[in-house]
User: Fold Ornithine carbamoyltransferase from Amazonocrinis nigriterrae CENA67.
Amino acid sequence: MAALSGRDFLSLADLSPTELQELLQLATQLKSQQLQLQCNKVLGLLFSKASTRTRVSFTVAMYQLGGQVIDLNPNVTQVSRGEPVQDTARVLDRYLDILAIRTFAQQELEIFADYAKIPVINALTDLEHPCQVLADLLTIQESFGTLAGLTLTYVGDGNNVANSLMLGCALVGMNVKIATPSGYEPNASIVEQARAIANNKTEVILTHDPELAAKQANVLYTDVWASMGQETEADDRLPIFQPYQISESLLSLAEPDAIVLHCLPAHRGEEITEAVIEGSQSRVWEQAENRLHAQKALLASILGAK
Assistant:
């Protein structure tokens, strides 16, 4: 994966189809321990949003590679006192080897990348969640043995996960259907970008009909109906999104061997039922584990681990 050495990873669109496939192959090799890589580097985690899976998986991945991690909690750094992003970026550049940022605005991430010479990884913004989708694709590949030609249906809010799923599916040759309530569609520019990547070889479909979207799906995927920063909207969203719940009924419309994914945390009884998330078709826990392996592959590739 020399092609990724020293590069930023701000969006799945930063990868070519070949690079994404090779990254997933490397993750598979690292997970099975066919391959063991080491790099004595320092990763900084600058997280303005709460995190369980992203924080822990990045930390464990870096430790397993033989590196170190510094948790740069904004509440105990000068970031919380308004230090300009560009100043923080230029200072951290002189201490760290790589930086993973979890924040609200994609623009803030891009400013960091512009001012820091070290690689910057998007660990989540309001626009995209590319590291999550690396793990999602790895999980789907493990379940079906392939990605090309499959259909993923995402049901719920057209949020950052939906945005990154469209790009990821287009890159690996999967069809993707996004079913949302009217007014909650994914980012229009990313829809265009995903369709350009798909280049009419696969489909990127938007719909307001979850049942129609679920038909012939190999993967049913959902996320919370109110993301971080939208908590005050949660009660108002409940009746709007209720028809978009992944239930046993909706799952029955998908292919018989379909799997169910959720990026977590899950609100059982809202976007997904208890029976589905705990059922035999759920791959949610494998999906969560794969955050570790996918991000380890990403770190190893960018840092040139050997």
